[in-house]
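Thread: pyridoxal-5'-phosphate complex, take 2
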Amino acid sequence: MRLRVLRVSIPRFRTELERIPAYRAGKGPGARADGLEAFKVSSNENPYPPLPSVRAVIEAAAHDVNRYPDPVSTVLRAAISRHFGVPIDHVAVATGAVALCYQFAHATVEPGDEVLFAWRSFEAYPILSSVAGATAVTVPLRADGAHDLPAMAAAVTERTRLVFVCSPNNPTGTVVSQAEFDAFMDAVPQHVLVVLDEAYIEFNQDPSAADGLVTYPQRPNLAVLRTFSKAYGLAGLRVGYAVAAPPIIDALNKTALPFGVSVIAQAAAVASLEVESELKERVGSLVAERERVEAELVASGVPITDSQANFIWLACGDRTSDFAAHCETEGLTVRAFPGEGVRATIAEPEANDRLIRLAGWLV
Ligand SMILES: *Cc1c(COP(=O)(O)O)cnc(C)c1O
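Output below.
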């Protein structure tokens, strides 16, 4: 039998994909030859393992994985509804808040429409905009790392369909104030969907910060986005939620991947809401650590922004790559945005101490 030799070719993909960098797995900290304990502070993860009670629920839920999960996460949505005092039909759940970001784009964007967000902000926004076939329009952060909401309102065009406002902002940690946000919502036309991404809101200590759950009942074009990944420490299970008026929730449900949120993830999220007071203590410790690190960095003259999240932003500018390499050598894996700065997650006290020591290199 003779084999026909086929000309080697690859499938033709959408041209938008050429603008998206291919995913390359990052190097984990791993074991070091010198025995120094390495810390990964590059993904804003919670350093605490699951509480024993949550772990027990996870193990028990493993019993049921031969069945599909509830596709609309009824028990979890009811728990979120009770916990935050919002109607259950105002809640949608997905495999992480990032999945909901994709759904917002798929629900709103037609080819050539615009998605607007500050920059630098969450790295998923430009990628999901391209995947949805939208044009990403960015507005630079202010010099203090905060959103420039008047400039963002002015950047809305007739093609704008979706706006992301990230507060606290990833990676600068800054919040938008309630007054600034109210003025912004007044300025944006009501047919434009605004998403207030509050992935880190549980770490906020600034009383002037905008509160999405208080704001959305008066704003039919506002969706609030939150996650169990950061403060609740369930990043590996993938659960996030949106709170908004029913027309927005219906559009999210139509664009959802079926059966996304697993049996185990739904159960763990419900259990986490039940033990929130214990989780809040951990959030409190991380906030105290953040304040300790900030005070040390400010005292030694390292330029930082006012972070209300579980990470610190060091505006290293041209020295970003060198500083990140220096940290790596010393067993601290940080997130570098070359030419701009370094984001370092607040983690175990030993990792935080190391960050304080290594930041001395910058002054
Ligand atoms: C981490 C993060 C999310 C979402 O995380 P999930 O793990 O997908 O829930 C959303 N927005 C911002 C700004 C984040 O940093």
